[in-house]
Task: inverse folding
């Protein structure tokens, strides 16, 4: 029997639960976002898909795909880190595109910069071949449930 989103969001305490919640997000499912564990932290992964290409001449992944990927990663990372009983609501999101994201797999990692009782700040980084050469970095503020 499949669980409802509200049941899944009652607390994310494992990577398996994180994967189940990810499968319930339509936009993440459309993009093909995946998650795995690396160094005891979630590593978000977007396998190359032609449908995610924005500039066919380079080719390069669409900026909106990168932004959506990082936003989903931040929400899920925050829910996982807090073992939250609710979905954080985004207050603002800012992204810096540092270089073209080529037609390759994309990886993303999140760091909670500051977390209080009601608000959290998250820094997200997306890269392809080398984590030291990010294609985009983003910052977001969330209102916690």
Result:
């Amino acid at each position: 029997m499949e669980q409802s989103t509200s049941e899944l969001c009652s607390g994310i305490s494992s990577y398996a639960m994180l994967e189940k919640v990810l499968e319930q997000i339509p936009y993440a499912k459309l993009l093909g976002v995946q998650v795995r564990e690396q160094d005891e932290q979630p590593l978000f992964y977007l396998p190359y898909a032609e449908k995610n290409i924005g500039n066919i001449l380079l080719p390069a992944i669409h900026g909106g795909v990168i932004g959506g990927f990082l936003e989903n990663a931040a929400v899920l990372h925050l829910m996982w880190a807090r073992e939250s009983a609710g979905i954080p609501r985004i207050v603002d999101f800012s992204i810096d595109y540092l270089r073209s994201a080529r037609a390759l797999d994309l990886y993303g990692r999140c760091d909670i910069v500051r977390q209080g009782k009601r608000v959290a700040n998250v820094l997200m980084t997306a890269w392809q071949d080398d984590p030291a050469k990010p294609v985009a970095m983003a910052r977001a503020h969330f209102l916690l449930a």
User: Anything to note?
Assistant: The longest strand covers residues 106-115.
